[in-house]
Hints:
The chain is an alpha/beta fold. The protein has 2 domains: 3-109, Winged helix-like DNA-binding domain superfamily/Winged helix DNA-binding domain (Arc Repressor Mutant, subunit A, Orthogonal Bundle), CATH 1.10.10.10; 123-301, Vaccinia Virus protein VP39 (Rossmann fold), CATH 3.40.50. It contains 13 helices and 10 strands. The strands form 2 sheets. The protein has a 7-stranded mixed β-sheet with strand order 6-5-4-7-8-10-9. Strands 1-3-2 form a 3-stranded antiparallel β-sheet, sandwiched between helices. β7 (208-214), α12 and β8 (234-245) form a beta-alpha-beta unit. The termini are far apart. 35% of the residues are buried. It binds S-adenosylmethionine (SAM). S-adenosylmethionine binds at residues 113, 120, 149-152, 155-156, 170-173, 176, 198-200, 214-216, 219-221.
Amino acid sequence: MPYDDLLRLIVDPTRLRILAILAQEPLTVAEVQEVLDLAQSSASGHLAKLKAAGFIRDLAEGSARRYRLREDMEPDARRVWDCVRDLYHDDPRLRVDAEHLARLRLEAGTSWVDRVAGSLHRTYAPGRSWDSIAHALLPLVRLGVCADIGAGDGAMIEMLAPQATTLICVDPSEAMVSAGRQRIADLGLSHIRYLACAAEDLSLTEPCDTVLFLQSLQYIADPARALARAISALAPGGHLVILTLARHDHDDCRRYGHLHHGFSPEDLRSWMPGIQTPQIIPLLPETTGPRYQPLLAWGRKG
Ligand SMILES: C[S@@+](CC[C@H](N)C(=O)[O-])C[C@H]1O[C@@H](n2cnc3c(N)ncnc32)[C@H](O)[C@@H]1O
Protein backbone atom coordinates (compact mmCIF):
# COMPACT_ATOMS: atom_id res chain seq x y z
CA MET A 1 0.00 0.00 0.00
CA PRO A 2 1.44 3.46 -0.88
CA TYR A 3 2.56 5.80 1.93
CA ASP A 4 -0.34 8.21 1.30
CA ASP A 5 -2.90 5.47 1.89
CA LEU A 6 -1.09 4.08 4.92
CA LEU A 7 -0.88 7.55 6.48
CA ARG A 8 -4.52 8.38 5.75
CA LEU A 9 -5.55 5.10 7.31
CA ILE A 10 -3.47 5.40 10.44
CA VAL A 11 -4.16 9.04 11.39
CA ASP A 12 -7.85 8.35 11.80
CA PRO A 13 -8.20 9.03 15.56
CA THR A 14 -9.98 5.74 16.35
CA ARG A 15 -7.56 3.60 14.37
CA LEU A 16 -4.63 5.40 15.98
CA ARG A 17 -6.08 4.65 19.42
CA ILE A 18 -6.61 0.99 18.45
CA LEU A 19 -3.02 0.61 17.25
CA ALA A 20 -1.66 2.33 20.34
CA ILE A 21 -3.60 0.06 22.69
CA LEU A 22 -2.66 -3.08 20.72
CA ALA A 23 0.98 -2.00 20.90
CA GLN A 24 0.62 -2.38 24.66
CA GLU A 25 -1.16 -5.69 24.65
CA PRO A 26 -2.99 -8.06 22.26
CA LEU A 27 -6.79 -7.75 22.67
CA THR A 28 -10.00 -9.35 21.43
CA VAL A 29 -12.63 -7.29 19.56
CA ALA A 30 -14.74 -7.22 22.71
CA GLU A 31 -11.80 -5.85 24.72
CA VAL A 32 -11.00 -3.20 22.10
CA GLN A 33 -14.67 -2.20 22.19
CA GLU A 34 -14.66 -1.96 25.96
CA VAL A 35 -11.35 -0.12 26.38
CA LEU A 36 -12.09 2.44 23.66
CA ASP A 37 -15.84 2.53 24.30
CA LEU A 38 -16.75 1.72 20.68
CA ALA A 39 -19.73 0.00 19.08
CA GLN A 40 -18.96 -3.56 18.00
CA SER A 41 -19.40 -2.78 14.30
CA SER A 42 -17.06 0.19 14.56
CA ALA A 43 -14.35 -1.81 16.40
CA SER A 44 -14.61 -4.70 13.91
CA GLY A 45 -14.55 -2.36 10.89
CA HIS A 46 -11.44 -0.50 12.05
CA LEU A 47 -9.68 -3.73 12.99
CA ALA A 48 -10.42 -5.20 9.54
CA LYS A 49 -8.90 -2.13 7.84
CA LEU A 50 -5.78 -2.19 10.01
CA LYS A 51 -5.40 -5.90 9.32
CA ALA A 52 -5.80 -5.47 5.54
CA ALA A 53 -3.14 -2.73 5.61
CA GLY A 54 -0.74 -5.11 7.39
CA PHE A 55 -0.46 -3.28 10.73
CA ILE A 56 -2.05 -6.03 12.81
CA ARG A 57 -2.88 -9.73 12.68
CA ASP A 58 -5.45 -11.85 14.48
CA LEU A 59 -5.32 -15.30 15.97
CA ALA A 60 -8.08 -17.66 17.01
CA GLU A 61 -8.39 -18.04 20.75
CA GLY A 62 -11.22 -20.38 21.67
CA SER A 63 -14.31 -18.88 20.03
CA ALA A 64 -12.82 -15.33 19.97
CA ARG A 65 -10.05 -13.76 17.91
CA ARG A 66 -7.20 -11.83 19.50
CA TYR A 67 -5.59 -8.96 17.60
CA ARG A 68 -1.97 -7.94 17.97
CA LEU A 69 0.47 -5.61 16.31
CA ARG A 70 2.44 -7.43 13.60
CA GLU A 71 6.09 -7.94 14.41
CA ASP A 72 6.70 -8.52 10.73
CA MET A 73 5.06 -5.38 9.29
CA GLU A 74 6.14 -4.52 5.74
CA PRO A 75 8.94 -1.91 5.89
CA ASP A 76 6.63 0.93 4.65
CA ALA A 77 3.94 0.15 7.21
CA ARG A 78 6.60 -0.12 9.94
CA ARG A 79 8.05 3.29 8.99
CA VAL A 80 4.62 4.92 9.02
CA TRP A 81 3.69 3.36 12.37
CA ASP A 82 7.05 4.24 14.01
CA CYS A 83 6.68 7.82 12.83
CA VAL A 84 3.04 8.25 13.93
CA ARG A 85 3.71 6.54 17.26
CA ASP A 86 6.56 8.96 18.01
CA LEU A 87 4.41 11.97 17.07
CA TYR A 88 1.52 10.92 19.28
CA HIS A 89 3.28 9.21 22.18
CA ASP A 90 2.24 11.95 24.65
CA ASP A 91 -1.33 12.24 23.37
CA PRO A 92 -3.72 12.47 26.35
CA ARG A 93 -6.36 10.32 24.56
CA LEU A 94 -3.89 7.45 24.34
CA ARG A 95 -2.97 7.85 27.99
CA VAL A 96 -6.64 7.67 29.00
CA ASP A 97 -7.07 4.46 26.98
CA ALA A 98 -3.98 2.92 28.59
CA GLU A 99 -5.28 3.77 32.06
CA HIS A 100 -8.69 2.34 31.19
CA LEU A 101 -7.07 -0.92 30.05
CA ALA A 102 -5.00 -1.16 33.24
CA ARG A 103 -8.16 -0.63 35.35
CA LEU A 104 -10.09 -3.30 33.45
CA ARG A 105 -7.24 -5.75 33.90
CA LEU A 106 -7.13 -5.19 37.61
CA GLU A 107 -10.89 -5.72 37.84
CA ALA A 108 -10.91 -8.82 35.65
CA GLY A 109 -7.77 -10.40 37.14
CA THR A 110 -6.87 -11.77 33.70
CA SER A 111 -3.78 -13.93 33.80
CA TRP A 112 -0.52 -12.22 32.85
CA VAL A 113 0.46 -15.22 30.73
CA ASP A 114 -2.62 -15.00 28.51
CA ARG A 115 -2.32 -11.24 28.19
CA VAL A 116 1.26 -11.20 26.94
CA ALA A 117 1.01 -14.21 24.57
CA GLY A 118 2.50 -13.08 21.27
CA SER A 119 4.40 -10.13 22.71
CA LEU A 120 6.40 -11.81 25.46
CA HIS A 121 9.75 -10.71 24.06
CA ARG A 122 8.78 -7.07 24.59
CA THR A 123 8.50 -7.68 28.33
CA TYR A 124 12.15 -8.70 28.68
CA ALA A 125 13.97 -7.88 25.47
CA PRO A 126 17.73 -7.78 26.10
CA GLY A 127 19.92 -4.82 25.24
CA ARG A 128 21.53 -4.92 21.80
CA SER A 129 24.96 -5.97 23.09
CA TRP A 130 23.63 -8.98 24.97
CA ASP A 131 21.38 -9.95 22.09
CA SER A 132 24.28 -9.83 19.64
CA ILE A 133 26.62 -11.71 21.99
CA ALA A 134 24.01 -14.46 22.33
CA HIS A 135 23.70 -14.63 18.53
CA ALA A 136 27.49 -14.77 18.19
CA LEU A 137 27.86 -17.68 20.62
CA LEU A 138 24.81 -19.70 19.65
CA PRO A 139 26.32 -21.30 16.51
CA LEU A 140 28.71 -23.12 18.86
CA VAL A 141 25.77 -24.82 20.56
CA ARG A 142 24.27 -28.11 19.37
CA LEU A 143 20.86 -28.75 20.94
CA GLY A 144 19.95 -31.88 18.93
CA VAL A 145 16.44 -32.99 19.82
CA CYS A 146 15.41 -30.24 22.21
CA ALA A 147 12.34 -29.78 24.41
CA ASP A 148 11.71 -26.19 25.51
CA ILE A 149 9.44 -26.49 28.54
CA GLY A 150 7.19 -23.49 29.19
CA ALA A 151 8.15 -22.21 25.75
CA GLY A 152 5.45 -19.53 25.88
CA ASP A 153 4.77 -17.89 22.54
CA GLY A 154 8.12 -19.04 21.17
CA ALA A 155 9.97 -15.76 21.73
CA MET A 156 13.18 -17.82 21.77
CA ILE A 157 12.40 -19.92 18.68
CA GLU A 158 14.47 -17.84 16.30
CA MET A 159 17.53 -18.36 18.48
CA LEU A 160 16.97 -22.01 19.37
CA ALA A 161 15.63 -23.44 16.10
CA PRO A 162 18.84 -23.22 14.02
CA GLN A 163 20.73 -25.12 16.73
CA ALA A 164 18.20 -27.94 17.08
CA THR A 165 17.46 -30.89 14.81
CA THR A 166 13.97 -31.01 16.34
CA LEU A 167 12.49 -28.40 18.66
CA ILE A 168 9.50 -29.37 20.78
CA CYS A 169 7.86 -26.38 22.46
CA VAL A 170 5.79 -27.40 25.48
CA ASP A 171 3.25 -25.06 27.08
CA PRO A 172 -0.23 -25.51 28.60
CA SER A 173 -1.53 -22.00 27.78
CA GLU A 174 -3.91 -22.03 24.82
CA ALA A 175 -3.07 -18.38 24.03
CA MET A 176 0.69 -19.03 24.11
CA VAL A 177 0.45 -22.18 21.98
CA SER A 178 -1.71 -20.44 19.41
CA ALA A 179 0.69 -17.46 19.19
CA GLY A 180 3.68 -19.85 19.00
CA ARG A 181 2.13 -21.91 16.19
CA GLN A 182 1.49 -18.72 14.27
CA ARG A 183 5.16 -17.75 14.73
CA ILE A 184 6.29 -21.13 13.38
CA ALA A 185 4.00 -20.75 10.36
CA ASP A 186 5.38 -17.24 9.72
CA LEU A 187 8.95 -18.51 9.93
CA GLY A 188 8.14 -21.46 7.67
CA LEU A 189 10.09 -23.91 9.85
CA SER A 190 9.16 -27.57 9.74
CA HIS A 191 11.34 -29.02 12.49
CA ILE A 192 9.49 -27.26 15.32
CA ARG A 193 6.26 -28.36 16.91
CA TYR A 194 4.12 -27.27 19.82
CA LEU A 195 2.78 -29.62 22.45
CA ALA A 196 -0.12 -28.15 24.41
CA CYS A 197 0.50 -29.77 27.77
CA ALA A 198 1.74 -29.08 31.28
CA ALA A 199 5.31 -30.04 32.10
CA GLU A 200 4.02 -32.28 34.88
CA ASP A 201 2.26 -34.43 32.22
CA LEU A 202 5.08 -34.47 29.68
CA SER A 203 5.52 -37.72 27.83
CA LEU A 204 7.71 -37.75 24.71
CA THR A 205 8.31 -40.68 22.41
CA GLU A 206 11.73 -39.54 21.22
CA PRO A 207 14.58 -39.14 23.73
CA CYS A 208 15.86 -35.56 24.03
CA ASP A 209 19.44 -34.35 23.83
CA THR A 210 18.49 -31.14 25.62
CA VAL A 211 15.66 -30.05 27.88
CA LEU A 212 15.33 -26.35 28.64
CA PHE A 213 13.32 -24.49 31.28
CA LEU A 214 13.85 -20.81 30.40
CA GLN A 215 12.15 -18.66 33.04
CA SER A 216 9.28 -21.11 33.28
CA LEU A 217 9.88 -23.16 36.45
CA GLN A 218 8.45 -20.42 38.70
CA TYR A 219 5.15 -20.72 36.73
CA ILE A 220 4.84 -24.48 37.12
CA ALA A 221 2.58 -25.76 39.90
CA ASP A 222 4.63 -28.88 40.71
CA PRO A 223 8.27 -28.18 39.77
CA ALA A 224 9.58 -31.42 41.31
CA ARG A 225 7.26 -33.51 39.15
CA ALA A 226 7.96 -31.38 36.07
CA LEU A 227 11.70 -31.89 36.48
CA ALA A 228 11.26 -35.64 37.04
CA ARG A 229 9.29 -35.84 33.75
CA ALA A 230 11.94 -33.76 31.98
CA ILE A 231 14.81 -35.91 33.24
CA SER A 232 13.03 -39.08 32.17
CA ALA A 233 12.61 -37.53 28.69
CA LEU A 234 16.39 -36.99 28.41
CA ALA A 235 18.65 -39.47 26.64
CA PRO A 236 21.71 -40.62 28.64
CA GLY A 237 24.32 -37.85 28.32
CA GLY A 238 21.59 -35.31 27.48
CA HIS A 239 21.65 -31.85 29.04
CA LEU A 240 19.14 -30.27 31.38
CA VAL A 241 19.28 -26.46 31.60
CA ILE A 242 17.10 -24.46 34.00
CA LEU A 243 17.05 -20.68 34.09
CA THR A 244 14.79 -19.45 36.87
CA LEU A 245 14.81 -16.99 39.77
CA ALA A 246 16.61 -17.32 43.09
CA ARG A 247 14.36 -17.41 46.16
CA HIS A 248 12.98 -13.97 47.02
CA ASP A 249 10.17 -12.43 49.04
CA HIS A 250 8.59 -10.03 46.53
CA ASP A 251 4.87 -10.70 46.38
CA ASP A 252 4.53 -8.65 43.21
CA CYS A 253 5.77 -11.72 41.29
CA ARG A 254 2.13 -12.91 41.55
CA ARG A 255 1.20 -10.13 39.13
CA TYR A 256 3.27 -11.91 36.49
CA GLY A 257 1.67 -15.25 37.19
CA HIS A 258 4.56 -16.76 39.20
CA LEU A 259 3.39 -19.56 41.49
CA HIS A 260 6.68 -19.68 43.42
CA HIS A 261 8.87 -17.04 45.04
CA GLY A 262 11.91 -18.38 43.20
CA PHE A 263 13.94 -21.39 44.36
CA SER A 264 16.95 -22.16 46.52
CA PRO A 265 19.93 -24.05 45.07
CA GLU A 266 19.02 -26.89 47.46
CA ASP A 267 15.48 -27.11 46.02
CA LEU A 268 16.84 -27.40 42.52
CA ARG A 269 19.55 -29.89 43.42
CA SER A 270 17.04 -32.16 45.20
CA TRP A 271 14.82 -32.15 42.09
CA MET A 272 17.62 -33.19 39.74
CA PRO A 273 18.21 -36.88 40.60
CA GLY A 274 20.02 -38.70 37.81
CA ILE A 275 21.81 -35.49 36.76
CA GLN A 276 25.55 -35.82 37.29
CA THR A 277 27.16 -33.07 39.41
CA PRO A 278 24.51 -30.43 38.79
CA GLN A 279 25.91 -26.90 38.55
CA ILE A 280 23.85 -24.20 40.27
CA ILE A 281 25.02 -20.69 39.49
CA PRO A 282 23.47 -17.46 40.85
CA LEU A 283 23.64 -14.78 38.12
CA LEU A 284 23.73 -10.99 38.44
CA PRO A 285 20.59 -9.53 40.06
CA GLU A 286 18.57 -6.83 38.29
CA THR A 287 19.96 -3.37 38.89
CA THR A 288 16.58 -1.86 39.83
CA GLY A 289 14.01 -2.99 42.40
CA PRO A 290 12.78 -5.58 43.17
CA ARG A 291 16.19 -6.87 41.98
CA TYR A 292 15.16 -10.38 41.00
CA GLN A 293 18.20 -12.63 40.76
CA PRO A 294 18.37 -15.24 37.99
CA LEU A 295 19.50 -18.70 39.00
CA LEU A 296 21.03 -21.07 36.44
CA ALA A 297 21.11 -24.83 36.99
CA TRP A 298 22.41 -27.37 34.53
CA GLY A 299 23.94 -30.79 34.23
CA ARG A 300 24.10 -34.01 32.18
CA LYS A 301 22.06 -37.11 32.69
CA GLY A 302 24.24 -40.04 33.74
C1 LIG B 1 7.65 -16.27 31.28
S1 LIG B 1 6.94 -17.48 30.27
C2 LIG B 1 8.48 -18.09 29.62
C3 LIG B 1 8.43 -18.28 28.16
C4 LIG B 1 9.69 -18.74 27.44
N1 LIG B 1 10.41 -19.81 28.10
C5 LIG B 1 10.62 -17.60 27.11
O1 LIG B 1 11.71 -17.55 27.66
O2 LIG B 1 10.24 -16.75 26.30
C6 LIG B 1 6.44 -18.82 31.31
C7 LIG B 1 5.63 -19.87 30.58
O3 LIG B 1 5.43 -20.98 31.44
C8 LIG B 1 4.21 -21.57 31.05
N2 LIG B 1 3.69 -22.53 32.06
C9 LIG B 1 2.84 -22.30 33.08
N3 LIG B 1 2.56 -23.46 33.72
C10 LIG B 1 3.24 -24.44 33.07
C11 LIG B 1 3.32 -25.85 33.24
N4 LIG B 1 2.67 -26.49 34.21
N5 LIG B 1 4.11 -26.54 32.38
C12 LIG B 1 4.80 -25.91 31.40
N6 LIG B 1 4.73 -24.56 31.20
C13 LIG B 1 3.97 -23.84 32.03
C14 LIG B 1 3.30 -20.37 30.86
O4 LIG B 1 2.16 -20.70 30.10
C15 LIG B 1 4.24 -19.39 30.17
O5 LIG B 1 4.11 -19.48 28.78
